[in-house]
Write a structure and sequence with these properties.
Elements lengths: L12 H10 L4 E5 L5 E5 H17 L7 E5 L4 H13 L2 E4 L6 H11 L1 E6 L4 H7 L8 E4 L16 E2 H6 L15 E6 L9 E5 H12 L11 E4 L11 H8 L2 E4 L6 H11 L3 E4 L1 H13 L9 E4 L6 H11 L2 E7 L6 E4 L4 H4 L3 H8 L4 E2 L4 E5 L14 E6 L21 E9 L5 E6 L4 E3 L2 E3 L1 H9 L4 E11 L3 E10 L7 H7 L12 E4 L13 H7 L9
Parallel strand pairs: 1-11, 3-4, 3-5, 4-8, 5-6, 6-7, 10-11, 10-12, 12-13, 13-14, 24-25
Antiparallel strand pairs: 1-2, 8-9, 14-15, 15-16, 17-18, 18-19, 19-20, 21-22, 23-24
Helix pairs in contact: 1-2, 1-8, 2-3, 4-5, 7-8, 9-10
Bound molecules: adenosine monophosphate.
The site of adenosine monophosphate has 20 residues, from strand 14, strand 19 and strand 20.
């Protein structure tokens, strides 16, 4: 027997309609590429998104077409999120930090029809416009006064002209909730990038889960500033969750340095932010150097790579900003776990609580986790047994765009490529990417633990731990370190710092100091590049 409830497809346009109707006066504030602050309401955003939907139709965008963006976090990008997906087309967020050749390859692979770009990406557009086969229309996301003149991009359209020249009357169409809504390519550190194609249904279910109190905990009382880019995995779903709950949104545009971010936090009363650890490093350095504080910010979500406990401690103990450690990936829309403590962990002494917070957290409802050994058998949830992490759920990839790479699933589970433990309370901890694990004498050493210890040293700004070749043990840990400006630190001092903090045989064999560690397009350390750089490194043989 079927239930007798309405069959309403879960569609992204409903989030905007809800925000307009029930939170119409709520503000959306953006620092624009043009340099000024733009401020309007969800009501105005809704009207402009509908004008844009009419403009897309007028330029021949039809159901299922890919519409690409190369854009920072801002209100125009937000309008595109809703206008494109809401019309039944597919929003393809391109990552502007990629090399122009990669951008061309991805745009071609996705068969993008139209490309919207922020002014700061004009050079990237000029380097690639003539080479992308499918894009027919280029739109600069600015007004007439700031329109660039570019011989390399003939027929360039102006975003504000498009919006102004079309009516705000538009009925969001209704269609199957399994229709594709947006497309994001993996960073592709090995081989070509692959596309994760999200649907309206997967996005909506992810949004419900992301907003929950033990997930990202979003509400109408929040002022959310997503530092995490809208060009990578939909800014962890915050542009959708904010509309669902009616939160005020603040967008930083291209200005992600500590000074600009802190000014925006203070001026707009930001309560929640989200980003990768490398961004917070810049912010904390600025706040510390200038003796500032956070008057309204109370929580920050940190994910994308492991958050060092030393950073958590500074946020929480010095600035009273709670850190929520979260984990996920492009293939998971991205949210998988969030490290919200339960009463039992909250009652622990501070040091033990911090050790739990360093874990990536508990599965959000909808995500099933398991860890398996090399034989594929499930491992115990004892906080000790480490194995490959597999996931399944309604917002987790079933196959890559165009079936690239074949069937990625193993008996219905998606192998994440991460190595993890899960404890008896369900807290999952990533010990490594499987590619980054250091295999010493047949035993595994997790590089993240070793990096976290180095990051707790006051002279260390950034640390990556990689495997270096060893004649006896095959691989041993090599620490690559960037010192804080002006700080003094020797190899011996840093190695001595590990004493009593970790099993002796895990201690790094060597330390090299470098000026910078290469970061990828999503702000993660590129350990593959470091491994290449230090392929011939000779470890001391003491
Ligand atoms: P991406 O698909 O580019 O978002 O990268 C996903 C990968 O980033 C995951 O598979 C993890 O290896 C890593 N990652 C994401 N969040 C965390 C975290 N909180 N701690 C450690 N690694 C993380």
């Amino acid at each position: 027997m079927n239930g007798s409830m309405m069959q309403q497809p879960l569609l992204i346009s409903s989030l905007l309609t809800h925000a307009e109707r029930h939170h119409g006066e709520q503000q959306v504030v953006s620092r624009r590429s043009e340099g000024d602050i733009h401020r309007y309401t969800y009501r105005e955003m809704g009207a402009r998104a509908r004008r844009l939907a009419n403009a897309l139709a007028a330029h021949g965008v039809s159901f299922g077409d890919r519409v690409a963006t190369l854009a920072w976090n801002g209100y125009r990008h937000m309008e595109l999120y809703y206008a494109v997906s809401g019309s039944g087309a597919v929003l393809h967020t391109l990552n502007p930090r990629l090399h122009p050749d990669q951008v061309v390859w991805i745009a071609d692979h996705a068969q993008d029809q139209v490309l919207f770009f922020d002014l700061s990406f004009l050079p990237l557009i000029e380097a690639s416009a003539g080479r992308v086969n499918t894009i027919k229309v280029f739109v600069a996301m600015t007004d007439r006064a700031h329109m660039p003149v570019s011989a390399a991009v003939p027929g360039l359209l102006c975003y504000e002209d498009l919006v102004e020249s079309h009516a705000a009357q538009f009925e969001w169409p209704s269609f199957d909730e399994n229709t594709a809504s947006s497309l994001c390519y993996t960073s592709g550190t090995t081989g070509n990038p692959k596309g994760a194609l999200y649907s309206h249904r997967s996005t909506m279910l992810h949004t419900f889960a992301a907003a929950l109190p033990d997930s990202l905990n979003c509400s109408a009382r929040d002022v959310i500033l997503p530092v995490v880019p809208m060009f990578h995995v939909n800014a962890w779903g915050l542009p959708y969750a904010a509309c669902m709950v009616g939160a005020k949104l603040v967008f930083p545009g291209p200005f992600l340095d500590g000074k600009n971010l802190h000014e925006l936090f203070e001026a707009e009363g930001v309560t929640v932010s989200a980003g990768v650890p490398t961004v917070w490093q810049g912010l904390l350095a600025h706040v510390e150097a200038n003796n500032l504080k956070f008057s309204t910010m109370r929580r920050t979500v940190i994910g994308g790579s492991a958050c060092p406990p030393a950073m958590m401690r500074i946020f929480q103990e010095r600035y009273d900003v709670a850190v929520l450690h979260a984990w996920g990936m492009t293939e998971m829309s991205p949210l998988g776990t969030a490290c919200t403590l339960k009463p039992r962990q909250l009652a622990l002494p501070a040091q033990e609580r911090l050790a739990i917070q360093a874990k990536q957290g508990r599965a959000v409802f909808g995500v099933d986790l398991k860890i398996v050994g090399e034989d594929g058998q499930a491992l115990a949830h004892d906080g000790q047994s480490a194995g490959e992490l597999l996931v399944r759920g309604p917002w987790i990839i079933a196959s890559y765009f165009k079936g690239e790479g074949g069937d990625p699933l193993v008996n219905g589970w998606f192998p994440t490529g991460d190595v993890a433990t899960i404890d008896a309370d369900g807290f999952m901890q990533i010990t490594d990417r499987s590619k980054d694990v250091i295999k010493s004498g047949g035993e595994w050493i997790g590089s993240i633990d070793l990096e976290n210890i180095a990051m707790a040293h006051p002279a260390v700004a950034m640390a990556a731990c990689i495997a270096a070749r060893h004649p006896k043990w095959d691989e041993r840990p090599l620490l690559v370190v960037v010192k804080k400006p002006g700080a003094q630190l020797t190899r011996e001092e840093l190695i001595a710092f590990y004493e009593g903090r970790i099993a002796k045989w895990w201690t790094p064999d060597d330390v090299v100091f470098v000026d910078a560690i290469p970061l990828g397009a999503t702000g993660k350390m590129q350990k593959n590049k470091l491994r290449e750089q230090f392929r011939e490194h000779c470890l001391p043989t003491a």
